Amino acid sequence: MEKCAICGKKRPSNDIIHIDYTPHIICSDCFSKMIEKRVKRNIRFFGPLEKGVKGFLEGKEHNKKIATFMLKKFFHPSFFELADLKKNADLLINSKSLEEICMDFLDIVFHNKQLPTSRVFLFCDIPQEELHLYAKINNIKLKKPRTPDLPALLKPKQNRFSFASSFKTLVKLKQDKNHKN
Questions:
Q1: Best exposed site among 6, 68, 89, 153 by fewest CB in 10 Å?
Q2: Percent of the chain at pLDDT above 70?
Q3: Does some domain include residue 125?
Q4: What are the tens digits of pLDDT across the range 110-165?
Q5: At 96, which CATH number?
Q6: CA distance 164 to 126
Q7: 173-175-181 Cα angle (round to 5)
Q8: Integer angstrom CA distances of residue 165 from 45, 58, 94, 157
Q9: Is the CB of residue 105 less than 8 Å from the CB of residue 166?
Q10: How many CB atoms neighbour CB 15 within 10 A?
Q11: In this structure, is residue 77 part of a structural domain?
Q12: How far apart are the C-alpha atoms of 71 and 32, rounded to whole Å?
């Protein structure tokens, strides 16, 4: 029996999660709440969803399953619904993980590509490994995808927060630049 660092309850070792970038031990319930809290914060940051908006999920199939599960958990169907086709959507919702966002970020910075507009990035600060743990805890059936290979300096285990904040800063700068023009 180990003690959860967040709730303080003693849990059996099969209900405990060890995350590489922190020395703390977290129970599966607190881990799920932590991931959901991050996703809710990202929804607020990238533009709160309004009543009656239809959203279209972009990204890989395994992330779409997790995103669909979370959005259905957070929002009542009368408030928000997912569109089947991109052209029927009012808002694009990106379900890429931290690693995929980092690769996109590098493309934007080094290859002078355009930043996607009017998107909500659900998992921009959540590594793929944590998304899979969340899916396992909540019994979401997934096939294990191949994660993109990142250079050693970009490993999310080393500094997850700097990449998320850099990406969010870039989004804000691009939005401010667009508003001034």
A1: 153
A2: 79
A3: yes
A4: 887 777 666 888 888 888 888 989 999 999 987 765 555 555 445 544 455 566 66
A5: 3.40.50.620
A6: 9
A7: 105
A8: 11, 21, 17, 15
A9: yes
A10: 16
A11: yes
A12: 14
- Report the distance separating Cα 85 and Cα 89, nearest Å: 7
The 3-state DSSP composition of the chain as helix, strand, coil percent (nearest 5) reads 50, 15, 35
Q: Which amino acid is at 141?
A: K
What is Dmax (Cα atoms) for the chain? Answer: 59
Q: State the burial class of residue 150 (Cβ atoms within 10 Å of its Cβ: 0-12, 13-18, 19+).
A: middle
Q: Among all chains, which residue has been given the structure tokens 């209900």?
A: 15
Residue 71 belongs to what domain range? Answer: 36-180
Is 3 a domain residue? no
Provide the token pair at 92.
């694009």
∠177-180-181 over CA atoms, to 5°? 90
Structural domain count of the chain: 1
Threshold 0.90, pTM exceeds: no
Residue 6 lies in a domain: no
Q: How far is CA 63 from the centre of its chain?
A: 9
**Residue for token pair 């944590």:** 130
